[in-house]
Amino acid sequence: MTKAQFIAGQWLEGQGHDIASQDPAKKQTIWQAKSASPAQVGEAVSAARQAFLPWSEFSFEERLVFVKRFAALLGEHKDELALTIARETGKPLWETATEVGAMIGKVAISERAYKERTGTVENPMPLGKAYIRHKPHGVVAVFGPYNFPGHLPNGHIVPALLAGNTVIFKPSELTPLVAQKTVELWEKAGLPQGVINLVQGEVETGKALASHPGIDGLFFTGSSRTGKLLHEQFGGHPGKILALEMGGNNPLLVRGVSDIDATVHDIVQSAFVTSGQRCTCSRRLFLEQNEQGDAILARLLEVTRQIQVGDYDAEPQPFMGAMISSRAAQQMVAAQKQLQDLGAESLLEMQHLDPESGFVTPGIIDVTGILDKMPDEEHFGPLLKVIRYSDFDQAIEEANNTVFGLSAGLLSDDAELYQHFFRRIRAGIVNWNRPITGASSAAPFGGIGESGNHRASAYYAADYCAYPVASVELEKSDMPDSLNPGLKF
Ligand SMILES: NC(=O)C1=CN([C@@H]2O[C@H](COP(=O)(O)OP(=O)(O)OC[C@H]3O[C@@H](n4cnc5c(N)ncnc54)[C@H](O)[C@@H]3O)[C@@H](O)[C@H]2O)C=CC1
Ligand SMILES: O=C(O)CCC(=O)N[C@@H](CCC(=O)O)C(=O)O
């Protein structure tokens, strides 16, 4: 049985129940273990607490040595890790190679972000000096999603460690092997014991960790449903820091473009990359009700019909791999059926290619006629909803008619229209003539509404990994030149 829990520098067998990981493309079990029991979660928290003081007392440069060693190891093991991500998620190898690249790039970016956003500022004063410095929170839990099982948890872990926190990592139960391989590299990098701990398991493991009184914070990337539960759970604990990166129902608007193929490429890249399993993916496409709108839609259907779906290791490589599981694929087909039942018109019906696997074809559905009854839900897969519009301001209003606010975009040759769109659209990522997926790690990454809680990650992760300390410092106490009224010395 795999020793799946990494606690205080030891790989241990779980004391919970059997868990497994499936390859959603080749339908094989690729990993089996036992989940962490609540007692083991408690041991991981204690290990992280014990490791905290010495780790936080290292200088930033000393911590950076370990983190850079980890980046070098990622480079050495990049093919193996890319293959593991592909096997566990179904994503094609061309894409998982970029995921490992993003993990490596995260280290230099987080170093810059730490110094720029949470470094030390020294200001001279008439007497002594004023300082702004930053300190780590302590023991933090990191919760990861399955769609980027390496890159997204890494986006919390690297800045958390650089800032001096110690970590308990709870990965998605759908991607335990990627988590194990990643933590093995941290171990190889020589991280002192207890600085990073790994607890594997399902929801009950997550609950045991999130509710543990010994954590000082929780950094979460995952669904809005879970994020909201955590937010409720953290209510009444103002001292604990909670960073939530959640889902979206992201709009992409099109009006007045000169290059239809470039526009269709941006739409496809926004809606169908990673089989639609990115939180930034466009879910709603707004096309004008005119000749150009018709032409874009016709070309979009033509290109989408030809999208290659296939095994992660197929040659030539497919654009889309399998979804994370056959269950996720079934849920997407059920979401499509629900929209059809409400009266939406399927322009290209999404098909589940094999009921046992995660393979689906991309779907496009016209929901213009059912806007008043359409659920405002994130359908996390390759299903694009088309909305035809006549009035641009009404289209923006409808684009904003969501509880989410993660990414949004405009495809148009009109610069003034973009300024107008930018002023009115509500989202944390707003692009012009670019796909709305593929956000940069060198920029803040987060959304408003039910997409997040105003603690953007990526470049701004440094902000939630440390708290600011303001100090006024004098080498020795001095009597002031004049005393306040009523004092006698
Ligand atoms: N805004 C962002 O940065 C991103 C958001 N996402 C969102 O993530 C979702 C897909 O990821 P999933 O893995 O399905 O998310 P999920 O919410 O199901 O799971 C995320 C993590 O929370 C844990 N968890 C689930 N229920 C829990 C509970 N009641 N208490 C404590 N822990 C619990 C899971 O075990 C997992 O480790 C999509 O909604 C997507 O939009 C994904 C990537 C990036
Ligand atoms: O976290 C970062 O370093 C940048 C944000 C990022 O990588 N976003 C990706 C993934 C989004 C998702 O999780 O689904 C993107 O925008 O495509």
UniProtKB/TrEMBL annotation:
Pathway terms, separated by semicolons: Amino-acid degradation; L-arginine degradation via AST pathway; L-glutamate and succinate from L-arginine: step 4/5
GO BP term (any one):
L-arginine catabolic process to succinate
Catalysed reactions listed for this entry: N-succinyl-L-glutamate 5-semialdehyde + NAD(+) + H2O = N-succinyl-L-glutamate + NADH + 2 H(+)
Q: Which GO terms describe its molecular function?
A: succinylglutamate-semialdehyde dehydrogenase activity
Q: Which domain of life is it from?
A: Bacteria
**Domain called Aldehyde dehydrogenase: residue spans:** 11-463
Q: What SUPFAM superfamilies does the database record attribute to this sequence?
A: ALDH-like
Keywords, alphabetical? Arginine metabolism, NAD, Oxidoreductase
| Residue positions binding NAD(+) | 222-227
| EC number(s) given by UniProt | 1.2.1.71
Q: Where is the active site?
A: 245, 279
Q: What is the stated purpose of this protein?
A: Catalyzes the NAD-dependent reduction of succinylglutamate semialdehyde into succinylglutamate.
What does the sequence similarity comment in the record state about its family? Belongs to the aldehyde dehydrogenase family. AstD subfamily.
Protein name per UniProt: N-succinylglutamate 5-semialdehyde dehydrogenase
Organism of origin is: Bowmanella dokdonensis
